[in-house]
Amino acid sequence: MRTNIIRNQALSISHHRLNGWTVFEVDGEFDAHTAPQVREAAIGLLDHGHRHFVLDLCFVPFLDSTALGAMVAISKQITAHQGSLRIACPSSRMRKVFEIGGLQQTFDFYDSPQDAAEQAPRTGAPAP
């Protein structure tokens, strides 16, 4: 069951469970204006016990350096809670932003949320 966290004109964030993963779906531009909302929503899920995340970017048409910073902050919080983060659906243009930001080796990328969640997360330790 998909649960909406934020839904407004600029951004929609929802989550659902898939094979032990929390699929965290962002729909809309992920930029300086929306990055704080995305970060707060992810941290809120962490505070409610979610540990292993698939960040679904399939519906994100634009990503900027502020969004990269938010993803790094989210990743650090997840790691501090012994969780893991995978990124689904980065377009070639989006991957270029990760590359320019020097983060292409930092994250695990998958073509879809289903691919990212194919293997259940390892409990008690971050997934490889």
Describe this structure in words.
Belongs to the anti-sigma-factor antagonist family. The chain is an alpha/beta fold and 128 residues long. The protein has a single domain (3-116), classed as 2-Layer Sandwich (Transcription Regulator spoIIAA), CATH 3.30.750.24. The protein contains four helices and six strands; from the N terminus they run βββαβαβαβα. It has helices at residues 35-47, 65-80, 92-100, 113-116; strands spanning 3-7, 11-18, 21-28, 52-59, 84-88, 108-110. Strands 1-2-3-4-5-6 form a six-stranded mixed sheet. Helix 1 (35-47) packs parallel to helix 2 (65-80). The model has no long low-confidence stretch (mean pLDDT 91).
Secondary structure elements and their pairing?
Layout: E1 3-7, E2 11-18, E3 21-28, H1 35-47, E4 52-59, H2 65-80, E5 84-88, H3 92-100, E6 108-110, H4 113-116
Parallel strand pairs: 3-4, 4-5, 5-6
Antiparallel strand pairs: 1-2, 2-3
Domain STAS: 11-120
Family: Belongs to the anti-sigma-factor antagonist family.
InterPro entries: Anti-sigma_ant, STAS_dom, STAS_dom_sf
